[in-house]
From TrEMBL:
Regions crossing the membrane: none
The protein's name in its UniProt record: Cysteine DESAMILurase
Pfam families tied to this protein: Aminotran_5
Gene3D superfamilies: Aspartate Aminotransferase, domain 1, Type I PLP-dependent aspartate aminotransferase-like (Major domain)
Family annotation (PANTHER family): CYSTEINE DESULFURASE, CYSTEINE DESULFURYLASE FAMILY MEMBER
Family that this chain belongs to: Belongs to the class-V pyridoxal-phosphate-dependent aminotransferase family. NifS/IscS subfamily.
Source organism of this protein record: Desulfurella amilsii
Domain of life of the native organism: Bacteria
Known catalytic reactions: (sulfur carrier)-H + L-cysteine = (sulfur carrier)-SH + L-alanine
Limits of the Aminotransferase class V domain: 4-361
EC primary class: transferase
Length: 383
């Protein structure tokens, strides 16, 4: 069975050109990156590493920033929040209620260490309240962490407005752009962002690479002690093949790819109207080009996900059951959905290897499975 993969917001297939760029750093240039005082093999690796670093900084117009390579966005987010907080020693941290769990659980950890955590409200589509943000920031605020694109519903926050508020309030702004870059251009020369997290495997790059982009003037405490890699902020051997793959994935991601993915999403949104009693949780405007979150009323998202999986379609439910929890999504609850609506949600995330035919097939499966499950539901009454 040829499976249909609509979980591209979780991870993507590595592009063939990305894989080709990586292979020499496994088989030929496999030395650890080292200084000019080392051997030539180490110097070749070091030059490749610094080339990738410079490329990413240039892509982001990040002139006065450092690019700190890490193993994944979770580590980057931890370094940003813990590193800045430990450097400041005390104070409060402001985050939105719908951040990725790598932010939510990190601030819960920091709360146990004595830091005060404040949560910004969002509206029904996940947009943060700028007025509430202004109210929460005070003279003791260490940093604000508000993402760009939401991982579940695709909402895109106004980075310019958030950055301006942080600038006026004189506090650090960290933005998790794992799900938006390089789908959307980010120009750090025009935005007041002090720290930016980017990933790799959500845009056809490899797992094992991420970066935290940090202003040169910003002080961080390292989380890992050891050697002197990554500006003394992230000890340990760098994963050069993955970093090279990350660079290549950014390099080849273009407007044509963006437009194709968005056309898939638009087509899906048109077709899903054929199914009655569907609530779209993603905003129509200011939304990730490939993410759709929908609630199928009167049924459990877990049941629908499992039935689709048996037919070869990979999607995830809006609840966190696949992380060994049956709790409803904190994102959807924060947007005001009831537990019942949150449990009935499914995230579809499209990528460049998907086709319109796959969407047609999935819509037919959805029609069948939704009708079947609603017939079993005591809450459902036919129109």
């Amino acid at each position: 069975m040829n499976r249909i993969y609509f979980d591209n917001a979780a991870t993507t297939r590595v592009d063939d050109d990305v894989l080709k760029a990586m292979i020499p750093f496994f088989t030929q240039n496999y030395a650890i990156a080292s200084s000019i005082f080392s051997h030539d093999d180490g110097i070749i690796a070091q030059e490749a590493l610094e080339g990738a670093r410079g490329f990413i900084l240039n892509k982001l117009s990040a002139k006065d920033y450092r690019c700190i390579f890490t193993s994944n966005p979770t580590e980057s987010n931890n370094l940003a929040l813990k590193g800045a907080s430990f450097a400041k020693k005390s104070g409060n941290i402001v985050v939105s209620k719908i951040e990725d769990l790598s932010i939510i659980n990190t601030v819960k950890f920091l709360q146990k260490k004595g830091f005060e955590i404040r949560y910004v409200d969002v509206d029904g589509k996940g947009f943060v309240s700028l007025d509430h943000l202004k109210q929460l920031i005070d003279d003791n605020t260490i940093l604000v962490s508000i993402q760009h694109a939401n991982q579940e519903i695709g909402t895109l926050q106004d980075l310019s407005a958030i950055g301006e508020i942080c600038k006026q309030k004189n506090c650090i702004y960290h933005c998790d752009a794992t799900f938006s870059f390089p789908f959307l251009d980010i120009d750090l020369s025009k935005l007041n962002i002090d720290m930016l997290t980017i990933g790799s495997d959500t845009y056809y790059g490899p797992k094992g690479a991420s970066a935290l982009i940090v202003k040169n003037s910003l002080e961080l405490e390292p989380l890992i002690s050891g050697g002197y890699q990554e500006y003394n902020l992230r000890a340990g051997t760098q994963n050069i093949p993955a970093i090279i793959g990350m660079k290549k994935a950014i390099e080849i991601f273009d407007k044509e790819t963006f437009n194709y993915i968005k056309s898939l999403k638009d087509y899906f949104l048109e077709k899903i109207n054929q199914i009655p009693h569907v609530r779209l949780n993603s905003p129509q405007n200011a939304s990730h080009p490939g993410i759709v979150n929908a609630t199928f009323l009167y049924i459990e998202g877990e049941s629908l996900t499992l039935r689709l999986n048996l037919k070869g379609v990979s999607v995830i439910t809006g609840s966190a059951c696949f992380s060994k929890s049956l709790e409803a999504s904190h994102v959807l609850l924060s947007c005001g959905l009831t537990h019942e609506l949150a449990h009935g949600s499914i995230r579809f995330s499209f990528g460049k290897y998907n086709t319109f035919e796959e969407i047609d097939k999935t819509i037919e499966y959805l029609k069948e499975d939704v009708a079947f499950l609603r017939n079993l539901s005591p809450l459902y009454k036919e129109d």
